[in-house]
Amino acid sequence: MDGLTFDASPDDKGFLTWSSSRTGFYTTNGGTIAIMKRSDPNSKGDCDLFIFGIPGEFAGYRLNYSDCIHKHEGRSRFSWIILKAHTNNTGIVRLRSSDPRDPPVINFQSFGDGQRPDDPDLIALELGINYVRDFIARVRAKGVTRGEIVPGAGVTGKALRDFIMTSAWGWRAARSASNALCSAEMSSGRVSGDVTNPIIP
User: Fold this and answer.
1) Which H helix or E strand runs over 187?
2) Which of 8, 49, 83, 198: disulfide with 15, CB 3.0–4.6 Å?
3) Residues near 133 by Cβ (< 8 Å), separated by ≥ 6?
4) Separation between Cα atoms, residue 144 and residue 187, nearest integer Å
5) What is the pTM of this model?
6) CB–CB of 75/1 below 8 Å?
7) Helix crossing, 120-141 with 157-167: angle to 10°?
8) What is the Cα–Cα distance from 153 to 114, expressed in whole angstroms?
9) pLDDT tens digit string along 131-168?
10) Could you tell me which of 42, 45, 38 has the C-alpha nearest to residue 124?
């Protein structure tokens, strides 16, 4: 990401390339790699995990979430986002009042509202996170990464499931899906750490 300042300034190489030829990094959504996987290896159905990596820090949509890409620390990370499709939750939409301008109450009831420790979506996201951790460990063994940032390599088992349940987020009330995110630090163009942070769309 050398030379990309993400501010459209005269010295932003990415913006200059895009504005002159409509090519380069700024023509993409940032995704650099994608993996489709079944969380149940015995399943003959469609893949239910979509794992993709993006250069830069992404820990979900929040106020000013994109500001981190303007900082060296944000640009020195690599994020892994894990989408869980074909979820098993059934949410509830409840009207607050008869006023159509009053937003409804929406509860996705993800992971059985946190009451199902054996929830298949929770287990699938844990598998996805561990899958990313396994292949990143091989990269880290070669000295390319520094370590996991979020939730941290020591967060496993019940603690990892609790992290997924409390950190997952979503944005779609119809046909919703679950995601998890992993982020990594890069140094001089080399990945130096990784993060896991779940998301439910």
Assistant:
1) strand 178-187
2) 8
3) 148, 153, 182, 194, 196
4) 9
5) 0.74
6) yes
7) 110
8) 23
9) 999 999 998 899 888 888 888 889 999 999 998 988 87
10) 38
